[in-house]
UniProtKB/TrEMBL annotation:
UniProt domain Leucine-rich repeat-containing N-terminal plant-type: residue ranges: 29-74
Domain Disease resistance R13L4/SHOC-2-like LRR: 192-278
PROSITE patterns: PROTEIN_KINASE_ATP
Name of the protein described by the UniProt record: Uncharacterized protein
GO-annotated molecular function: ATP binding
Chain positions recorded as ATP binding sites: 613
Organism of derivation: Trifolium subterraneum (Subterranean clover)
Signal peptide: 1-22
Entry-linked Pfam families: LRR_1, LRR_14, LRR_8, LRRNT_2
Alphabetical UniProt keywords: ATP-binding, Leucine-rich repeat, Membrane, Nucleotide-binding, Repeat, Signal, Transmembrane, Transmembrane helix
Length: 669
């Protein structure tokens, strides 16, 4: 019944249009047009459920459609706005939309349209704002938008449009915002764009533009934001960009631009954001950059820039992000940066910066990240850094820093990551871990530190990665480390640690990787938990360690051998599976210096064997397999007359170690 009523009323309106005169004709027409448009849409969420004719034709009101979802009318009942923003709508934009002759605001952004746009859209000469962004529209962008004399904004970003940008857009001289980011448009950029003297925003990033950036864009005197990154532009940045005196935001990141950064960019008095990262730019930054503008964000990382960091970057006190990493900047860190209270991030790692770390960074209450790694910094970490209440990430690794670490450095309440490896600090590890509620990564490897590992380190209950490798640490491994609830990676290798491995390591709650190699540890390796699955190389270089996954300790070797000789007649040494004869893994029999020993049954003949899967490290590969062969010959010498040893031909993991089958018959006589 409802369907018949809808069709009746729709036909009634169409016929009535031939007979009714005056203003009612237009409102009926637009009412009908909207119903036609709806018939081309897919509305799975039923947002447009109120787009229906009245239940009785005699109750028609001229502005009924003006109350429908997404529809707005002017005082005469003409449709002025069509806004279906973020309604999960798809389908086709009907050609009938051109009949809405008073339409000024059209917005169907953030939906699922995947069709082409009708060319008839260009007949909407009353348009002021057109937004089809964040859909999947394909094909070319409609031409003749230049006929809309009052058009102020076009947003077609984040679609799949392709081809050329329409030349006639340059005729829409009142345009203030033009956004074509995130499509597949190709060069050239229309020369007519230089006519858009009221344009404030131009977004062309994330397309397939190539060649040189047009110099005539520098004639857009009203432009405030220019975003052209993520294209394939090449050549130099046009010096004419320095003429855009109102420019606040310039983004040319991720391309193949080369040459120098124009000195005139440093003279722009309104510049707030400059993003030039990941290009092939060289030379120095403009000396006056930031000195006369409210610069907030500077990112020129991953280029080939050199020279000193401009001293006036924070003259106006607005700089929040300074990102200069992966360049060849030299000279000192400007002292003005350590007094820049607005800074949130300082990332100047992997340059040639020299001198000392300026005093003052610890007093910057907004500073969260301080990344100075891989430079030529000397001196010490300023003591004032320990008074920070905001730093969460500090990386000063791969420098030439000396002196001891500030004792309170690890007690910064917000600190999550502290990396100071590959320096020449000297001194000991600070014994003040009581105030490290957030610390998750601590890397002091290759830092020339000595002395014991503090027991208080276990107070860092969120620590995940702890790396003290290649230092001069002495004393034992604190038992408290074994109870750390989140510790996943522990590296204490290449030190002078003594004593035994704590028994509880095997049951550490989160431990996944541990390297204790090249110390002076002794005694049995605990045989529980994760310690049963570790690579023996993680214990190498400790002459006093034995047992567990290492060769048996001397006092238990005789008893262990006697026990095994009464139950097992063969030992099979195999880099991989030795064949289909092994059918059942009964259990873990033990571990040896080069592999894990399993107990298995062989059907033919009916015997029980010990299967040893040999480890083969990368070091052994480099040595031509000598460690593996040594293990093989050692077992031959140690074997008693109660064993048969099979050395099978096979593969050891991905190293493909081939060993010919040998049989040494030493069975009982």
């Amino acid at each position: 019944m409802q369907t018949h009523l809808f069709l009746f009323f729709y036909c009634y309106i169409c016929v009535s249009l031939f007979f009714i005169e005056g203003a009612e004709i237009t409102t009926y027409d637009e009412f009908s047009t909207l119903l036609s448009i709806k018939s081309s849409l897919i509305d799975p969420m039923n947002h447009l459920k109120d787009w229906q004719p009245p239940s009785n034709a005699t109750r028609w009101q001229s502005q009924l459609h003006c109350n429908w979802t997404g529809i707005g009318c002017n005082s005469k009942g003409f449709v002025e706005s069509f806004e279906l923003y973020n309604m999960n709508v798809s389908g086709i934009v009907s050609n009938q939309i051109q009949s809405l002759s008073s339409l000024s605001y059209f917005n169907i952004s953030c939906n699922n349209f995947a069709s082409t746009l009708p060319k008839s859209l260009s007949n909407l000469t009353s348009l002021k704002s057109f937004d089809v962004s964040q859909n999947y529209f394909t094909g070319s962008f409609p031409t003749s938008f230049g006929r809309a004399a009052e058009l102020r904004s076009i947003n077609a970003s984040s679609n799949d449009f392709s081809g050329l940008l329409p030349e006639d857009i340059g005729n829409a001289t009142f345009l203030e915002s033009l956004d074509f980011r995130g499509n597949y448009f190709v060069s050239p950029i229309p020369k007519s764009f230089k006519n858009l003297q009221n344009l404030k925003f131009l977004g062309l990033s994330g397309n397939n533009f190539t060649g040189k950036i047009p110099e005539y864009l520098g004639e857009l005197s009203s432009l405030e934001t220019l975003i052209m990154g993520y294209n394939e532009f090449e050549g130099e940045i046009p010096a004419e960009f320095g003429n855009m005196t109102n420019l606040q935001y310039l983004d040319l990141a991720v391309g193949t631009l080369s040459g120098h950064v124009p000195e005139k960019l440093g003279e722009l008095k309104n510049l707030k954001v400059l993003e030039l990262w990941k290009n092939s730019l060289e030379g120095s930054l403009p000396l006056n950059l930031g000195r006369n503008s409210p610069l907030q964000w500077l990112d020129v990382s991953s280029n080939s820039l050199s020279g000193e960091i401009p001293p006036g970057l924070c003259t106006t006190g607005n700089l929040t992000k300074l990102i200069l990493f992966n360049n060849s900047f030299s000279g000192p860190i400007p002292s003005g940066l350590s007094n820049c209270s607005s800074l949130v991030r300082v990332r100047i790692q992997n340059n040639l910066i020299s001198g000392t770390i300026p005093v003052g960074f610890g007093n910057l209450q907004s500073l969260q990240r301080l990344e100075l790694a891989k430079n030529n910094l000397t001196g010490q970490i300023p003591i004032d850094v320990t008074s920070s209440t905001s730093l969460s990430f500090i990386d000063v690794s791969w420098n030439h820093l000396e002196s001891s670490l500030p004792s309170e450095i690890l007690s910064i309440p917000t600190l999550q990551t502290f990396i100071a490896s590959h320096n020449s600090f000297g001194g000991t590890i600070p014994d003040d871990f009581q105030g490290c509620p957030s610390l998750s990564v601590l890397d002091l490897s290759n830092a020339n530190i000595s002395g014991p590992i503090p027991e208080s380190i276990a107070s860092c209950q969120k620590l995940v990665n702890l790396n003290f490798r290649n230092n001069h640490l002495t004393g034992g491994i604190p038992k408290s480390i074994t109870n750390m609830p989140t510790l996943s990676v522990l590296d204490l290798s290449n030190n002078s640690l003594t004593g035994r491995i704590p028994e509880n390591f095997g049951s550490s709650p989160a431990l996944e990787t541990m390297n204790l190699s090249y110390n002076k540890l002794e005694g049995p390796v605990p045989s529980n938990g994760i310690l049963l699955t570790m690579n023996p190389n993680d214990f190498i270089g400790n002459a006093g360690l034995c047992g567990g996954i290492l060769p048996p300790c001397s006092h238990s070797l005789t008893a262990t051998s006697h026990k095994r000789s009464s139950h097992i007649g063969h030992i099979v040494i195999a880099p991989s599976m030795i064949g289909s004869n092994i059918t059942t893994k009964i259990g873990l029999g033990g571990m040896g210096g080069a592999g894990i020993v399993y107990k298995a049954e062989i059907h033919k003949p009916q015997i029980t064997v010990a299967v040893k899967k040999l480890w083969r490290s990368s070091t052994d590969i480099e040595n031509g397999g000598n460690d593996w062969l040594l293990e093989k010959s050692t077992l031959k010498r140690k074997v008693t007359s109660n064993f048969t040893i099979f050395f099978s031909r096979g593969y050891s993991g991905r190293f493909k170690l081939n060993i010919d089958l040998e049989l040494l018959d030493l069975q009982q006589h």
